[in-house]
């Protein structure tokens, strides 16, 4: 019977066959220990010379790293293994013998590993990170589907910027200028006016020449948009969504979190509601922590966000930023026009901003004023203005950066490990 490593719990005491690769091995006298992986997980296979015969045992000892094979044996419980099971091997068939696999158990430099990313993904650590990423994606669809959201796919090629910035990748769309999307938000606002509650999940691109551990050139965003929702409603959705994702990873990725050495006690505290502080209070907080150079009206950098997060054991919302440092479409606070109804969600443990969100301007005349202030009077934004002309309603939305969220939940230092094939400032290979 063929099965997979994740399914072996159903076959204790039975003989099964698994297609696998040899990630590592060691031998001790008359026993060989094969570290097997099949894409679903990792498991140890025990080869005993007395059971398998001299010829087959020597063949097992000669197996090379990353050779592929069919392994047949009986599944037994093993409490010492993270999986809880191992295989007593009684036969195997080599499919392909790998020779001189470049990533050995010794230490390798980051650049070497990035050059071999197509192979590095096979390692136990990278496998665990990708499984956490997959669970976050699964839990995302689960949360929004269960709460009545419709998935809408915004275009990747656009004729304008979502936030009016210049950090865009330019291309030619036949005779027209086009750009790779930096956010699907504007299109999701249109979708919300048609479907009420929507979300998108797709790649975005920022031509930002940054080399920090938090930045990628190509990354994935989850962007919900909600009609008839104000800023406070949106904050509640955000904290419920993040709580759901974290708890789903805790419940479904125990083996992966253990492989990553993640302190799960910190993640267990991530349950709604989350603390909230105003931008004004956040400025005062970082000043008190020794950042004398920051003034009201400045945006927070990574050190400031880390300093703020240190005071909390949950993600924290920083609300009501100055209008001057936020996007043109954010709704001013009715009680205080110099700040907008927005929030950034800062992850604990120094992982920085994972969500940016706001209530959007729904007043036609105010949006026209913003167009003039930001020189958005061309045809490219005409359709966006029309959303305020025909049945405008209060609406809010946010965007969560997947890779930063994976880094935080998995406890990985650099976002380059949180996406299968990272695109960095100086890396377009493999």
UniProtKB/TrEMBL annotation:
<dbReference type="InterPro" id="IPR004365">
    <property type="entry name" value="NA-bd_OB_tRNA"/>
</dbReference>
<protein>
    <recommendedName>
        <fullName>Asparagine--tRNA ligase</fullName>
        <ecNumber>6.1.1.22</ecNumber>
    </recommendedName>
</protein>
<dbReference type="GO" id="GO:0004816">
    <property type="term" value="F:asparagine-tRNA ligase activity"/>
</dbReference>
<dbReference type="InterPro" id="IPR006195">
    <property type="entry name" value="aa-tRNA-synth_II"/>
</dbReference>
<comment type="subunit">
    <text>Homodimer.</text>
</comment>
<dbReference type="Pfam" id="PF00152">
    <property type="entry name" value="tRNA-synt_2"/>
</dbReference>
<keyword id="KW-0436">Ligase</keyword>
<dbReference type="GO" id="GO:0140096">
    <property type="term" value="F:catalytic activity, acting on a protein"/>
</dbReference>
<dbReference type="InterPro" id="IPR004364">
    <property type="entry name" value="Aa-tRNA-synt_II"/>
</dbReference>
<keyword id="KW-0648">Protein biosynthesis</keyword>
<dbReference type="InterPro" id="IPR012340">
    <property type="entry name" value="NA-bd_OB-fold"/>
</dbReference>
<keyword id="KW-0963">Cytoplasm</keyword>
<keyword id="KW-0547">Nucleotide-binding</keyword>
<dbReference type="GO" id="GO:0006421">
    <property type="term" value="P:asparaginyl-tRNA aminoacylation"/>
</dbReference>
<feature type="domain" description="Aminoacyl-transfer RNA synthetases class-II family profile">
    <location>
        <begin position="130"/>
        <end position="430"/>
    </location>
</feature>
<dbReference type="InterPro" id="IPR004522">
    <property type="entry name" value="Asn-tRNA-ligase"/>
</dbReference>
<dbReference type="Pfam" id="PF01336">
    <property type="entry name" value="tRNA_anti-codon"/>
</dbReference>
<keyword id="KW-0030">Aminoacyl-tRNA synthetase</keyword>
<dbReference type="GO" id="GO:0005524">
    <property type="term" value="F:ATP binding"/>
</dbReference>
<keyword id="KW-0067">ATP-binding</keyword>
<dbReference type="GO" id="GO:0005737">
    <property type="term" value="C:cytoplasm"/>
</dbReference>
<dbReference type="GO" id="GO:0003676">
    <property type="term" value="F:nucleic acid binding"/>
</dbReference>
<dbReference type="InterPro" id="IPR045864">
    <property type="entry name" value="aa-tRNA-synth_II/BPL/LPL"/>
</dbReference>
<comment type="similarity">
    <text>Belongs to the class-II aminoacyl-tRNA synthetase family.</text>
</comment>
<dbReference type="GO" id="GO:0016740">
    <property type="term" value="F:transferase activity"/>
</dbReference>
<dbReference type="InterPro" id="IPR002312">
    <property type="entry name" value="Asp/Asn-tRNA-synth_IIb"/>
</dbReference>
């Amino acid at each position: 019977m063929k099965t997979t490593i994740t399914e072996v719990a159903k076959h204790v005491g039975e003989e099964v066959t698994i297609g696998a690769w040899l990630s590592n091995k060691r031998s001790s006298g008359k026993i060989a220990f094969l570290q097997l992986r099949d894409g679903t997980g990792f498991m140890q296979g025990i080869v005993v010379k007395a059971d398998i015969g001299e010829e087959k045992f020597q063949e097992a000892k000669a197996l090379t790293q990353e050779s592929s094979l069919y392994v047949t044996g009986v599944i037994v419980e093993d409490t010492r293994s993270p999986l809880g099971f191992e295989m007593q091997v009684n036969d195997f068939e080599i499919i392909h013998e790998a020779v001189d696999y470049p990533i050995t158990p010794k230490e390798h430099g980051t650049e070497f590993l990035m050059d071999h990313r197509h192979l590095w993904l096979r390692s136990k650590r990278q496998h665990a990170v990708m499984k956490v990423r997959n669970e976050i994606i699964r839990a995302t669809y689960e949360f929004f589907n269960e709460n009545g959201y419709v998935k809408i796919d915004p275009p990747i090629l656009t004729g304008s910027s979502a936030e009016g910035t210049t950090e865009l990748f330019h291309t030619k769309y036949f005779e027209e200028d086009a750009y790779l999307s930096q956010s699907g938000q504007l299109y999701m606002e249109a979708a919300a006016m048609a479907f009420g509650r929507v979300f998108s999940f797709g790649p975005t691109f920022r031509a930002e020449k940054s080399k920090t551990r938090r930045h990628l050139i190509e990354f994935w965003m989850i962007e919900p948009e909600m009609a008839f929702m104000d800023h406070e409603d949106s904050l509640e959705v955000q904290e419920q969504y993040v709580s759901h994702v974290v708890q789903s990873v805790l419940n479904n990725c125990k083996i992966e979190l253990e492989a990553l050495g993640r302190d799960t006690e910190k993640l267990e505290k991530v349950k709604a509601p989350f603390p909230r502080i105003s931008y004004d209070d956040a400025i005062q907080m970082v000043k008190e922590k020794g950042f004398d150079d920051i003034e009201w009206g400045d945006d927070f950098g990574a050190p400031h966000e880390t300093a703020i997060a240190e005071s909390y054991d949950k993600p924290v919302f920083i609300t009501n930023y100055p209008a001057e440092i936020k996007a043109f479409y954010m709704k001013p606070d009715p009680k205080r026009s110099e700040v907008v109804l927005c929030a950034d969600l800062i992850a604990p443990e120094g992982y920085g901003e994972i969500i940016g969100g706001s209530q959007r301007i729904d007043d036609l005349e105010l949006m026209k004023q913003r167009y003039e202030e930001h020189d958005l009077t061309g045809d490219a934004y005409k359709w966006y203005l029309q959303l305020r002309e025909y049945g405008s309603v209060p609406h809010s939305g946010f965007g969560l950066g997947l890779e930063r969220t994976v880094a935080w939940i998995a406890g990985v230092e650099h976002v380059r490990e949180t996406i299968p094939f990272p695109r960095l400032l100086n890396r377009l290979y493999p």
